Amino acid sequence: MHFIAVSINHRTADVALREKVAFNDDAIRSANVGLYETKSILENVILSTCNRTEVYAVVDQIHTGRYYIQRFLARSFELDVEEIKEMTEVNVGDEAVQHLLQVTSGLDSVVLGETQILGQIRKAFFIAQEVETTGTIFNHLFKQAITFAKKAHNETDIADNAVSVSYAAVELSKKVFGKISNKQALIIGAGDMSELSLLNLIGSGVTDITIVNRTLSKAQNLAMKHQVKFDSMESLPKLLAEVDIVISSTSSEYYIITNDMLQTQATERKNDSLVMIDIAVPRDIEPNIDAVQDVFSYDVDDLKGLVDANLRERQRAAEQILQSIPAEIEAHNEWVNMLGVVPVIRALREKAMTIQEDTMDSIDRKLPGLTERERKIISKHTKSIINQMLKDPIKQAKELSSDRRSNEKLELFQNIFDIEAENAYESNKRMKQSKVGQILSFE
């Protein structure tokens, strides 16, 4: 068996290409099943987000597995296989495990250390489990990856420092006020950056939020989408006297908030401090406006300094996480190697217990007058003999799991004891044939 990860991501394809190869939520279940029915595929999980479409698969052969995965993607999106090959990166074995661990912990994301991908991986895995395209390998590996990512986030600062301008804007408000869940916020503008700022405010517990925009309908649409308030741009002076936080992001060629406007409203202000964050280029807020008492004004250059410093902190945390990945890969490999040993040990025990049971049947026939107590004593001692005899062979079998020639030596082990054990590969293949057979018979 081989683990393979085929990835289309922000490094291998631009957004226009990534849009062409994204599975929507309705299609992901049938896509998993369709891939599972493909030749060479023994287990699979499909991840599809705005920044990546990835196929994780356990395959019987690397080359055929890679080909059939790429062909599956090409057919799913009506593209040529060559087009898919050009935009995919393929990792195999340990590199595939490392890729999964880095993706799950946010080290491979556009925004380093973002935590949303962990939920997306978990969801992709659960969907694959629901449609029964995972098996022994992935049921263990994906749980390991999810646990690893949670631990990485808890034990490092990878996700604690803002590295996007809109997120940094909200974090800057927290630095001034400490707690902002009880504050009133105003967002000027209704574009993508404004929506991201809105989502970050909501995520920080702010509930009293008003959106204003030059086109009122756009402010209304965004406000209704996220269940907040909206108002006209004409209401801006009045709102400045009421709110605590202002985040502005418009495409205006002129200042939206001027010094004169704020001076006029200074006597009307209900709250002590006003934090104004200008993430627009060109700027929406007149420079040096923070000369007004208790007004704190920041622009994109101020935020950039914060973002750069925070990115360095995340990069240090990322290095910590990267250093712990080899141990995870080794643990996974040890577990996989033991998969080949466990059936052998089971087969050996089953053969030994069959011999013990046959021996007890023979004793019952030859000594029919045994009492129940005598029979139990004989059965207990024969089992003890078997366990003592099996102790060293089982120990040797376990040690073979880490041997370079483990497959060859395990085969010799089975020949010596005249046993036959089904390995994980054969088990997966049999289960797959059984499931596909059920699907075909149902159809």
From TrEMBL:
Alphabetized HAMAP family for the sequence: Glu_tRNA_reductase (MF_00087)
Ligand binding (substrate): T49, C50, N51, R52, S109, E114, T115, Q116, Q120
Catalytic activity from the UniProt record: (S)-4-amino-5-oxopentanoate + tRNA(Glu) + NADP(+) = L-glutamyl-tRNA(Glu) + NADPH + H(+)
Note on domains (UniProt): Possesses an unusual extended V-shaped dimeric structure with each monomer consisting of three distinct domains arranged along a curved 'spinal' alpha-helix. The N-terminal catalytic domain specifically recognizes the glutamate moiety of the substrate. The second domain is the NADPH-binding domain, and the third C-terminal domain is responsible for dimerization.
Keywords: NADP, Oxidoreductase, Porphyrin biosynthesis
Other remarks in the entry: During catalysis, the active site Cys acts as a nucleophile attacking the alpha-carbonyl group of tRNA-bound glutamate with the formation of a thioester intermediate between enzyme and glutamate, and the concomitant release of tRNA(Glu). The thioester intermediate is finally reduced by direct hydride transfer from NADPH, to form the product GSA.
Residue numbers annotated as active site: C50 (nucleophile)
Residue ranges occupied by any Tetrapyrrole biosynthesis glutamyl-tRNA reductase dimerisation domain in the UniProt entry: 324-419
Role played: Catalyzes the NADPH-dependent reduction of glutamyl-tRNA(Glu) to glutamate 1-semialdehyde (GSA).
Organism: Staphylococcus caeli
All copies of domain Glutamyl-tRNA reductase N-terminal, residue ranges: 6-156
UniProt name for this protein: Glutamyl-tRNA reductase
UniProt-recorded Gene Ontology molecular function terms: glutamyl-tRNA reductase activity; NADP binding
Any single biological process term in GO: protoporphyrinogen IX biosynthetic process
Binding annotation for NADP(+): G189, A190, G191, D192, M193, S194
Pathway, per record: Porphyrin-containing compound metabolism; protoporphyrin-IX biosynthesis; 5-aminolevulinate from L-glutamyl-tRNA(Glu): step 1/2
Family that this chain belongs to: Belongs to the glutamyl-tRNA reductase family.
Chain ranges passing through the membrane: none
UniProt site (Important for activity): H99
Quaternary structure note: Homodimer.
Known EC number: 1.2.1.70
Domain Quinate/shikimate 5-dehydrogenase/glutamyl-tRNA reductase: 171-305
